[in-house]
Amino acid sequence: MSPTVYLALTQRTALATACTLVEAMGLRSRPLEEGPSALGQLVEGLTLNPHSAALVDLSECPLGCRNVLALAQKIPVDLRRRVVLFRHDHGSVWASDREWVHTLGFAGLFAEVAPAALNLESAALPGLIAALVNVQIEDTRQLIRCLSAAWAEPDLQTHRGFIRAHCNRDAESLAQIMASGVRSIDRQYGVTNYPACFVGADAVRWLRNQFGCSAQTALEIGQALHALGLLHHVLDEHAFEDANLFYRLDVTANTTRTHLGYLYMQMQGPRGLEVADRGYMGKTYDHCWVAKDAVTWLSQMRQVPRYEAENLLNRLLGFGLIEHVLGAHRVKDQYLFFRFCGPGIAKGRTEKIQGASYLRPTTGLPNLVAGKL
Largest CB tally within 10 Å, which of 132, 206, 241, 249? Predict the structure, then answer.
């Protein structure tokens, strides 16, 4: 059978880029139509053709799986090794996230597949695809240069593309340099103190000075970071604005280096969160936990400020692993009800995923096989 790459990508630019890249490598591209049969087609194709691989978008997964754990449960472990995951325009990607995806048995995790990104973090993508389908590419770098020349126009239609076009860097690295460049201090409004935050107008000014752009462009860069979950209003009441409003960047060491799979397992462990049926305004919500209690638990367990515990919980929310019972809120340090969203939820616990292991690096802890995840 000819080497084939299945494409479960819903974002138009991503799909077009992936098709061009795959075909430039001399491989066959096979886009999958969104629908109930897509997952079955993918599993069947990977099973029948050992020289095949798949590129799958987690953010708007056309395979009908709500998160990476559900996807891992549906795809056998021997096939997962040939599946590359993406988070197109729906959240950040850090090294700890890539490690977590590897522990689940997938081939890798990228923020995006986009023309300009092939010169940045996705430069390894063509070589990875070639290895997965067992073909040789003589000069991967030359292939990337040729493709980049063909894609001369900047991608301004996506949040990541907009940031890259105006800042010449990816969204994560921009957030990191902003964290050291924009002044974050404890601030007060009325009688309430807001620790470690910055003013939206100050961030706009810093972006203008740093990249020589207009105030409108700087505002839109901040709004793109907000859309990607890399900054947020301290009360989650505003989008990013050029105003005297308080914001935080979600790029502390605790939020970027935390192994989310390990954290998710701890939250559901015997010393984790209390999951119970809870009532509010005459209605019962089953198998849920309280956000304020989760912030307290995580803050004490990790010895981090409460706002950093919020950030970590919202990273789980961004990956679709937890949800507000009505889908109406991000995680806040308030009396709000949330649930776990892993596959096969039963009284707050998730089922085993074959071949998945959860290892927290650099701690000396043993390998934790997914039993309670």
Answer: 249
Rounded to an integer, what distance in angstroms lies between the CA atom of residue 284 and that of residue 291?
A: 16
Q: How far is CA 135 from the centre of its chain?
A: 29
Q: Which of 335, 286, 292 lies closest to 313, judged by CA?
A: 292
Does position 350 have pLDDT exceeding 60, yes or no? no
Q: Retrieve residue 218's tokens.
A: 């700087």
Token readout for 312 is: 């970590």
Evaluate whether 133 touches 27 at the Cβ level (below 8 Å): yes
Rounded Cα gap, residues 352 and 342, in angstroms: 10
Contact 219, 228 (CB under 8 A): no
How open is the CA angle 355-338-323, to the nearest 5 degrees? Answer: 60
Q: φ and ψ at 150, to 5 degrees?
A: -70, -25
Mean pLDDT of 219-235: 96
Measured between alpha carbons, how far is 259 from 262 in angstroms, rounded to an integer?
6
pTM: predicted TM-score of the whole model, two decimal places = 0.87
Q: What is the pLDDT of residue 353?
A: 62
Query: 10 Å Cβ neighbour count for 246?
Result: 18
Closest C-alpha to 187, from 335, 307, 315: 307
Domains of the chain: 4-150 (3.40.50.2300), 159-251 (1.10.10.10), 255-369 (1.10.10.10)
B/e letters for 55-67, b = 16+ CB within 10 Å, e = fewer, are bbbbbebbbebeb
Locate 35 and state its tokens. 């629908």
